[in-house]
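Dear support,

We are seeing what looks like truncated structure output for some complexes. This example has two components. We would appreciate it if you could run it in full and send us the complete token output so we can diff it against ours.
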Amino acid sequence: MKKFNKVVSVAMAAAMVAGVLAVPAAAEEGTFKVGVIGPMTGDYAQYGTNVYNAAKIAIDEVNANGGFNGYQVELLDAGDDQGDAEKAINAFNDLLDKGMQMLCGTVTSGACIAVGAEAAENTFLFTPSGSAVDCITAGSNEFRMCFTDPMQGSKSAQYISENGLATKVAILYDSSTDYNVGIHDAFVEAAPEYGLEVVADEAYTTDSNTDFSVQLSKIKDSGAELLFLPNYYSDCALILQQAADAQLDVTFFGVDGMDGILSVENFDTSLAEGVMLLTPFSATAEDEATVNFVTAYGEASNGETPNQFAADAYDVIYAMKAAADDAGITPDMSNEDISAAMSASMLNIEIDGLTGKAKWTEEGECDKEPKAVVIKDGVYEMME
Amino acid sequence: MSFISYLKDGISLGSIYAIIALGYTMVYGIAKMLNFAHGDVIMVGAFVILAAITKAGLSPLLSIILAVVLCTVLGITIEMVAYRPLRKASSNLAVLITAIGVSYLLQNVALLVFGADAKSFVTVINVPTLVLFDGQLTIKGITIVTIAACIIIMCGLTLFVNKTKPGHAMKAVSEDRDAAQLMGVNVNSTISLTFAIGSGLAAIAGLLLCSAYPTLTPYTGAMPGIKAFVAAVFGGIGSIPGAMIGGILLGVIEIFGKAYISSQVADAIVFAVLIIVLLVKPTGLFGKNVQEKV
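Here is the complete output from our reference environment:
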């Protein structure tokens, strides 16, 4: 038995060495290798598959137009992390073994924080949708396409004020979840700057997220014109139902967590009529780029409609292309060199993508104007 | 008027806790075990009703009957498979841990079968909203139904335990299991019956919970289950009227805490009240103080 163990450990060690050696070997070829990590199965599978499918479409388009800096780009098979940090790190190492030089991912925040620590200063990381602040703080070679959670708060305040939606606002949020608290705090901080008065600031917790009657009646008494809901859609569905019962007549404004409210099973979508949410993308928008993308996406994946994750991923690939062209990188460079050159070029580029005109800061944050949609007749309609 | 409106909200929330607490207290009173899976049986009941109506197209009444039957069978099965073999175990702790295990099992099976996405519950009970004082006070139909159901179940259970033969057997098992067995009471079938009734009630509680707060996930039953357990302890666990009063008081305290103190610490207030009550009266409001004979 002892001998057998030894054989196994030698074999495993050999396999590990082989894995390490595979990295430079794969990079010798004349194509760039891009990887995607995200939940491809499990509860969040919709997010990951949207990102992968959209990245595929963008890379095919990029390849038809000369690729990254004149070299073709290959999209590696998707790394499936099921939204889990540990699985994401395994997927990351696996993709490196397969020769990945740039990462479009990861998709979910928790996994992205973990992978961000691994990729710091060695592999170029560009997350389409990891919105927690710490997703890209580990290294200077990490960038993001979406807004951070707190930024959604200040951008919402900006949007509400600039579009004259209200001056007296109320908030109802889950005070036991980071995501909601981060957005809430940023919103409250930014509100005075944009001339908004917070007349009611009510909370609930994940453990008591079914009864909102008291909070809603306080909000009703406060005379608010708009109710800001930085919560996930399942809570929002219940809040909207109870707000209707309480005859609360305000504008409802949510953030990206609200996205999905129309697909809650058995939800009466008429309750969501007129609800606005901050989102970078609407599949029903009529501009040429969106229409082309939605058509291409539908053709590639059985007529499905892409969501904002897909749009973010699509823009990530184009931003990568812009940075690669600017940096003049070649596929035979090491991951570290590609990473350093791309990171420097990210500060020079500006793209006009599906999610808006975007530039990047030194911290890797995306600087773009907030966009919002309003729900009309059960579909999103872009607000102008 | 806002005070009365909050009071009404509290009673409507409390009546939900009360109806769940009735199931808890019933099982505890007779089997002397905390069935932590009770909240999850509620969730199963609600899913059965939802699936029967939306997927199988059954009528609401038929769906409710189906859910009650399935939950009863589920309750008996859980008791036979998970609890009965441990009843002779040296400590009650073993059953308690198993109950927590069953709770997670049910949640995860539901997660596999129905997915994690929250689903909106369909309208099953159609009772018009009561509007009083020129629209200043509105009482939803479901609140009235829940309170009525609570009172009917409470009275029914009390009558059943005090006036029927199986009820007497339950009381006997509750007071002294070994002595009851010596007197010819079939302890196993009596406890099975308790679980059957408790789980059947869970299906009704699931219906009322999800009608009042129309959202359904595999975790829907967990938190109300814990709150209802608190309500049962508050009212004096094992006492049927205690569960009802405890549930309603808990709901009222929670809503008043939210309304007049802070919506962020409402749960903390609820549990603080529980601690105070237990410090002052360890057996709960309606609990009997049983002297341990040496």
